[in-house]
Specification:
44% helix, Rossmann fold, alpha/beta, binds iron/sulfur cluster, binds 1,3-dihydroxyacetonephosphate, single chain
């Protein structure tokens, strides 16, 4: 514990010295989220992270999350130094959507508007017409559908199915999934709900359709946190990364939050629903990144950046 306090104190000093601000995702460990809060940084979903970094005056953005979040920050604010605790923190959706193959898929369907999830590389974003995060995917696709557009969607198939069902849009889906959310099991969730009949079920739309169908609320991390505040229930079963419990518990200390089951036997696994890449964002790595940015800094090729900025800007302007 003392060790952690010492890390935190040194990091606070370094953030000031380097004119840096900590931008953290809800899936990072509680101590990282707390540190962002204590130092005037932000803890949020991926859309808000992009917005915050874009608007904050700091010269350096220290992004605690996964690589696409750092890349998005760099694309939006190339004049800033963007560093991450580790550049190894990737995402299974990003890994499962190589730019060359995705581009060929797009080429094969030139009649479709290309909408990609933010959880992608800069190169995939550069091939897209629109970038969306889970918090505005429905609104953007609804808008495109109302314009009579057919859509090519990548990479998350579960989010794609969810958006398709909600909007009725014509969507062709890339076959990607999040290794964390893909593990939630509908059968076990039904059993758990029987034990807690008054519980509300909150589900991130990267989960399989069978799990989404059981939800009382579906949405991005920030939308799920809001649902935990606005729904009258005292108990919540939550199908998303367990990092989110820090904020839910903080905002609603008298409510009970439990993890949706990732196993097949009805028992909740207390440590399964946690993104292994988000977990790489530790205090030690944060201090290292601030002390010596080499090997922690995000660079995006200038041409790619220019192209990827278009669909990202489109998203931010749409979300206004
Ligand atoms: P949010 O945009 O809901 O924060 O989701 C990001 C993410 O990686 C979910 O797995
Ligand atoms: Fe990617 Fe899933 Fe991790 Fe989110 S939780 S960063 S979608 S692997």
């Amino acid at each position: 514990h003392d060790d952690k306090a010492a890390y935190k104190a040194r990091i606070k000093t370094l953030l000031q010295q380097k004119n840096a601000v900590l931008v953290a995702h809800y899936y990072t460990d509680p101590e990282i989220q707390a540190l962002a809060e204590e130092t005037g940084g932000c803890v949020s979903d991926s859309l808000e992270m992009a917005r915050f970094g874009n608007q904050h005056p700091a010269k350096t953005l220290l992004v605690a999350g996964v690589k696409f979040m750092g890349e998005t920050a760099k694309i939006l604010t190339p004049e800033k130094t963007v560093i991450m605790p580790t550049l190894e923190a990737t995402c299974s959706l990003d890994l499962g959507c190589p730019a060359a193959e995705f581009s060929a898929f797009c080429d094969a369907h030139p009649d479709r508007v290309v909408v990609v999830y933010a959880n992608t590389s800069a190169a995939v974003k550069a091939r897209a017409d629109w970038v969306v995060t889970s918090s505005i995917a429905l609104d953007v696709v609804d808008y495109l559908d109302s314009q009579g557009k057919k859509i090519l969607w990548g990479p998350d198939k579960h989010l794609g199915v969810y958006v398709q069902k909600q909007t009725g849009a014509d969507m062709l889906l890339w076959n990607g999934a999040c290794i964390v959310h893909d593990e939630f099991k509908a059968k076990a969730l039904i059993e758990l709900k029987k034990q807690y009949p008054t519980a509300a079920i909150l589900v991130h739309p990267e989960s399989p359709d069978s799990v989404v169908q059981l939800a009382d609320a579906v949405g991005s991390t920030s939308q799920l946190i809001k649902a935990s505040q606005t729904l009258p229930n005292d108990i919540f079963i939550v199908a998303t990364d367990r990092g989110i419990f820090y904020k839910m518990q903080q905002l609603m200390p008298n409510k009970t939050f439990m993890e949706a089951p990732t196993g097949g036997n009805g028992a909740t696994c207390r440590s399964c629903a946690h993104c292994p890449w988000m977990a790489m964002n530790g205090l030690k790595a944060i201090e290292e990144a601030l002390l010596e940015p080499t090997g922690h800094e995000i660079f995006v090729d200038a041409q790619l950046r220019e192209r990827a900025l278009l669909p990202l800007d489109r998203m931010l302007n749409f979300a206004k």
